[in-house]
Design goal:
heterodimer; A: 274 residues; alpha/beta; Rossmann fold; 6-stranded mixed sheet; 9 helices; 9 strands; 37% helix; globular; B: 258 residues; mainly alpha; 10 helices
């Protein structure tokens, strides 16, 4: 993987009212870097990540891959997006293939899910599901790894261990990582470079390289953080209601409730016809 | 987990239902006794005797076999046709705009009309009979499957796209399991519909099968035989439901169990 380039990326949404989320993003991501995209809720971080992932194709501007096509990519979504009727292990094998059974077991152990291989996602807590989705992404050994708030519903200690796991993985495999987060401290702990999106205008506000040695001690992180406080100026105060609500712990996931709602709808329909 | 509590009324029977069934037989006995007209209201015993007679000396087995064969063929055709149509309508807004209205008309077409038209246009033959049943049932399957196809979770499909999961694997492990519940629902709703329509098709224009026999008994006013044939057929349909469809549905739904 040789990195990639974003040229003048724009993205408009029609709902609820017509508005521009991104208005001209220029950014070059170099191979093997661990880039953090930071910004408050609504600044377009996730939209930008979806464009890079190829899930959003109606954007303006150019996304340039040196080889002409996107390299092998893995992603951790804001929601776990595990398939509810497949066991955790089968969820990993779905993307990695049956041959990766041993590696999948190892990957699950690394995210502290040994013993939960045969549980269904609905039987696990939100944090466990999120770790499973991290294991799924790491297992595929991607050239490009996209992470959308991957540590959000984990308790502090567990999130710390997962961050260290990610840092180790990145150093070992030389993967290019784009990490979306609104936690500046997390960005400072992990990244080689921080790119901040402005709160409202849909533009890049600032780029900060972070040539700090690793592993990064708390003191060094605090010191770097102190110099970056200006980045969060103008961010809405962290009530964070939307983020924490979507990442609530517990066995109910958005997808299962969506699924059972839909299911009860057509069962009711079939009953009314029969 | 929020779980759908809506289930189709089961045509198969639980053991707890047996007392109420025995009560039904008792009621039947009582009415037969009060009416005191063995021709018009035969008793359960007389019906059982008629059943035995047709089983041993009559055409019960061959009639049932002929009817079940028609049910099986028409059921399979209607499930295949209806499922494909339903998935197309559910996945493509354009298809739904174009053909959704046709489906409404097809759903409301009286079974008798399609049967008569098929016989008139294609002759009193086996293909016309099967075609008539298929045309009657496929729209119902399509309507139920369309809802299932509409409910397919886009977020999971996005996930498989990022990870570049092979298409066949996505179909088998992600898409089909989401359509399976609606497929089962349409199978169960469709099976009871199919065999009812097959009887009408046979009554109107086939030289064998349960429907044909019932018309013959009707001509001779042989109520006991009509009841005997009906009960035998109900028993078989319930067995299919309880021994094939319900276990299959439980398998499909296994992941929902806590």
């Amino acid at each position: 993987m040789k990195g990639f380039e974003l040229q003048g990326i724009t993205r408009d949404f029609a709902h609820p009212t017509p508005h521009a989320v991104l208005r001209g993003i220029d950014l070059t991501v170099t191979a093997g870097e661990l880039l953090s995209l930071v910004g408050p809720s609504g600044s377009g971080k996730t939209t930008l990540l979806r464009i890079i992932a190829g899930l959003d194709r109606v954007f303006g501007g150019k996304l340039i891959w040196p080889d002409g096509r996107r390299p092998t990519t893995a992603m951790v979504f804001q929601e776990p997006r595990l398939v509810p009727w497949l066991s955790i292990l089968d969820n990993l094998l779905l993307v990695a293939g049956e041959a990766s059974r041993d590696e999948a077991t190892v990957a699950l152990a690394e995210v502290e899910l040994a013993g939960s291989e045969h549980a269904f996602p609905g039987q696990l807590s939100g944090g466990m599901q999120r770790r499973a989705s991290l294991a799924r992404a790491l297992l595929t050994r991607p050239a490009l790894l996209l992470l959308d708030e991957p540590f959000i519903s984990l308790d502090a200690a567990c999130a710390g261990r997962m961050r260290r796991l990610l840092a180790t993985y990145w150093q070992k495999h030389g993967v290019t990582i784009v990490l979306v987060t609104h936690d500046l401290r997390e960005a400072v702990e992990l990244s080689t470079r921080i790119v901040a999106l402005s709160p409202q205008e849909g533009r890049l506000m600032k780029e900060v390289p972070l040539p700090l040695p690793r592993p990064r001690a708390d003191a060094a992180i605090d010191e770097a953080l102190a110099g970056l406080r200006a980045l969060t100026d103008g961010w809405p105060q962290p009530s964070d209601s939307s983020d924490s609500a979507s990442a609530r712990c517990g066995p109910t996931t958005a997808q299962t409730s969506h699924f059972s709602r839909a299911r009860s709808r057509f069962l009711a329909l079939s009953r009314s016809i029969a | 987990m929020t779980r759908a509590t809506v289930t189709l009324p089961a045509a198969g029977l639980r053991w707890s239902r047996w007392p109420s069934l025995l009560a039904l037989v008792a009621l039947w006995y009582l009415i037969a006794l009060l009416m005191d007209d063995p021709v018009l209201v035969p008793s359960p015993a007389a019906t059982l005797a008629a059943f035995y007679h047709h089983l041993v000396e009559g055409d019960l087995i061959t009639s049932l076999a002929a009817t079940l064969a028609r049910v099986a063929i028409a059921f399979t055709l209607a499930m295949a046709l209806g499922s494909i149509l339903g998935i197309l309508l559910g996945r493509s807004q354009m298809m739904d705009d174009m053909f959704g209205g046709w489906l409404v008309i097809a759903l409301n077409m009286p079974a008798l009309v399609t049967i008569v038209l098929c016989y008139v246009w294609f002759g009193l033959n086996e293909s016309a009979a099967i075609l008539a049943v298929t045309i009657n049932k496929a729209p119902l399957v399509a309507a139920i499957t369309r809802e299932g196809a509409r409910a397919i979770d886009r977020s999971l499909l996005e996930m498989t796209r990022v990870f570049a999961v092979p298409r066949l694997r996505v179909l088998r492990r992600v898409i089909l399991p989401q359509i399976a519940p609606s497929f089962m629902a349409s199978a169960r709703a469709g099976l009871s519909l199919t065999w009812k329509i097959v009887l009408v098709v046979e009554l109107l224009g086939r030289p064998n099968g349960v429907g044909f026999e019932i018309r013959t008994f009707f001509n001779y006013f042989d109520i006991a035989s009509i009841l005997a044939y009906s009960l035998a057929f109900i028993a078989i349909v319930m067995a299919i439901e309880g021994c094939i469809l319900q276990p299959l549905e439980r398998r499909v739904e296994r992941w929902r169990q806590p």
